[in-house]
Amino acid sequence: MADRLEVEQTAAPTLQTVGWLPTFLYYFTGATLIAALSSAQAFNLELATGEPFRFGIIPGLLAGLAGAYFNRTVSLAIPCGTAKPNAVANPKAFKTQLNQALSDLGYTPKSELEGGYQVYQRSALRHWLSGSILVQVAEGTATIFGRASNIKRLQKKLE
What are the pLDDT digits (tens) for 82-113? Predict the structure, then answer.
């Protein structure tokens, strides 16, 4: 394998993923509501006045930014079986290497989806905290989908 595995972050060709904005809004809204409700209880404020939401905006922004950065869905395209420099020469060998890297991260194959996507998940509670990783190896490219933090760790393992 080459010194450094070249990868490119691409949009999914056939798989729709959740982008940055919906992920940000999900975490922002949840954290803002929790902080507003907590401040209303702690300071004996009425929710109808809007005052508790002033206390919730900053925690909401911080949670939204952190959640969107670490938990947004990204894709990673790795060329395999092509003449490109730094490409993986043998797709079967790459699949074995990928399975080992995912296993090291605690992921095991769970099911296969339509379109040739292999689903990898962690066990029980860890799955709910880290999400799934989807892999499609087809036509000279392996495309991997998952949370940004997990894909970054996987990318380091594959280098």
Answer: 545 455 567 777 788 889 999 999 999 999 98
Regarding whether 144 and 78 lie in a shared domain, the answer is yes
The answer to whether the beta carbons of residues 103 and 158 sit under 8 Å apart is no
Give me the CATH number covering residue 137: 3.30.310.80
Give the contacts of 121 (CB within 8 A, at least 6 positions apart).
Answer: 107, 108, 110, 127, 132, 133
Asked if the structure places residue 55 within a domain, the reply is yes
The model carries a pTM of 0.74
pLDDT at position 63 is 97
CA–CA distance, 159 with 70 (Å, rounded to integer): 21
Q: Kindly report the backbone phi and psi dihedral angles of residue 44, in degrees, each rounded to the nearest multiple of 5, phi listed first.
A: 55, 50
Pure H helices in the chain: 20-43, 51-71, 91-104, 124-130, 148-158
- Residue 36 has phi, psi (to 5 degrees) of -65, -45
Alpha carbons 58 and 14: distance in angstroms, whole number = 37
Domain containing residue 47: 20-70
